[in-house]
Amino acid sequence: MEAGSHGQLLSAELNMPFSDSVKYILLGTSVALLLVALGILTWQTFRYCKTRNTYTRQARVHSDVLYLDEKPRTAENYSAAPSSKVDGSLRFSVHYDQPQSRLGVTILQVKGLHCQTGGIQPFVKVRVMWAGSRRVKVADCKDEEGEGASPALWTVLQEWQTRIVKGICSPLFGEKFSCVLEQEKDMLQSINLRMEVWDFDKFSRNTLLGHVRAPLGHLNISDPLELHEDLQIPQKDLVGEVLLSLKFLPTSQRLEVGLLKVRTVLTNTGSDSALYARISVQCNHYKLGYQKTSAVSRDLVTIFNEVLMFSLPEFPMEQCKILVSVYETHTSWKSTKHLMGQLTVGKEKGSEDKHWTLMMRSVRQPVAKWHSLLI
């Protein structure tokens, strides 16, 4: 009798003190969570199988390093390419004082810029470009006559910038710049002035509106010469070559970027001149950060042999871009960095770089290739 009463008491205690409606809500929530968990499990299984099939189709390479000693093939952005007009023009003057070997440049006025709503804040950046004696063979590069030609390897001897003028479509500058050139035979014949008109943006990136080139070897500048030239669509100059190594590690979803060598024209910039690189990665329109190499003393061929590691997002990678920026600095005294040139490697939705393709075909193997360094 006592045992039966004790069982009834336990049964009463185990009964949940909830109404039937609350019980049904809890049951429905449990079933919904179970369905969500099953859906996530199914999706992860599908992605795993898809990724595995992708790697299975990729060709395997048995060598430790794939070294492709190929020259850069991008020729459409070199200064030898023809330019087209854009809105605006630039008025400037040039003078070369031969006894003192001093080159003087005066930026007078920018005229006829297209002013958008909110105004414009133009300024002018001036570069003195010198074509080194060494030439680089570049595939598919032709001169204006249609014959094969090797674009010159340029270097920036001097760089200046005017003040920023706010809210004026035809600003007056009247700013003078000068520098002393080396007294080498026919050096002036290999110098170009590259003047770029920019629109300053305080909260975003500055916009390049157009540029003007002035080959000093074709001008009589023994006396001050004033010129008025239309702005052209910007064209980049070849300032060097970079030997870059790429390796993709699918298991850890990482990318190894190796900066091996940098070729540039060596000028008399001093023994304390050094180079370093800033490498950034962006995938699926998401910035993955950047890393810097150590500074290495500059030479004709500057050897780095540094490898930087980046963690990539999960598949699929619809867009991925590697930006390498090479800077010059000085080790013996504190100085501002000077951008020498940049290069970009990667893939877009509709196309991808040859180097990127070779890397994906050679998973877990480093692939090295030369790239053009442009500015």
UniProtKB/TrEMBL annotation:
Entry keyword annotation includes RNA-binding: no
Pfam family, one: C2
Listed GO CC annotations: axon; dense core granule; plasma membrane; synaptic vesicle membrane
Domain C2 as annotated: residue spans: 86-229, 238-371
Source organism, top-level taxon: Eukaryota
Membrane-spanning parts: 24-43
Key words of the record: Membrane, Transmembrane, Transmembrane helix
InterPro entries in alphabetical order: C2_dom
Family: Belongs to the synaptotagmin family.
Record-given protein name: Synaptotagmin-2-like
Organism for this UniProt entry: Solea senegalensis (Senegalese sole)
